[in-house]
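Dig into this one:

. . .
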Amino acid sequence: MSHAKPRASVRAGSRACGVPEFDAPDSAWNVAAAAPAQGDPFCCRTEWQLSFHDTFAPGRALHLRHDRGSVATFAERNDARLGALLEPVECSWLFGCPLLGSDAVDLLDALLQEWAAAVLPNVLISGILPASTLRRQLLATFHGRRAIYQLEPNIQVSASLAGGLDGFLSRRTAHLRRNLGQQARRAAEKGVHYERHAPRSAAEADAVYARMLAVEQRSWKGIGRCGMAESPSREFYQVMLRRLAVSGGGRVVFARCGDDDIGFIFGGMAGGVYRGQQFSYIEAWSKFGIGNLLQIEQVRWLCEEGAQRYDMGPKMDYKRHWTEVETRMDAWLLRAL
């Protein structure tokens, strides 16, 4: 599989750059994603953002700007209702933020001034924390110049890994800890064991991914044809795992019985923050709590590495047992007046 080749605006005077310059683990984009506090730092990174662009919406022009440690990263699209629109590169779930760093709002303002007044684009900005400097800067720069509409907030959930595995478990309920102990004993009696992978090449990433898909296809999601084995999700996670292999940032744990894979859990690192992506297990093993046991094995690995936080993405009922922190992230639409 080859990556799509998106168009990017490149203009030396504004220190714009193209996709290849940004598409690296230590690029200006990824350094900026790690610098400020972010609600979802992994999804601010290129492994998430550019993988989405490659597989879900490759036809858009990208407008990428950076200066003094800040970046503004947008995709251009003609929306049926709004007309010309600058949107985050990942524009579906809106987990990341396209404005990173203290000068990012100035970069956006300069980018907008390049448009002729007749085609002035609307702008969609995601990942705005309610009490953040970014929110204040956007209001100071665009209040009175743009109509600002707030979209439905995105609530993300996470867990601290302070205190290692014991600390993590101490923040879970006694009921969950008891169930985990019982499930672990039953699975061990059946010979279930675990295998860790952090791919470091495209070939290794593809081999691990093929095993993940084989499990997914025998899960309830695969049987119902509603999971990551379906396009374009299938291509999205493969491209993401390949990108993560450049830095070794992918984390995959398989649950195995004998020589057979019966489940997996997958996510990626953004500095000391792990972001979960997918987990699945063969339907025949559902009564053994394999999903819960995979979560604990992943936490065990992360704690051994000294990770600080486990991000589980958008709030869902099953995640309340695993997390104790909720983070609200807003998305704003800046309409041209």
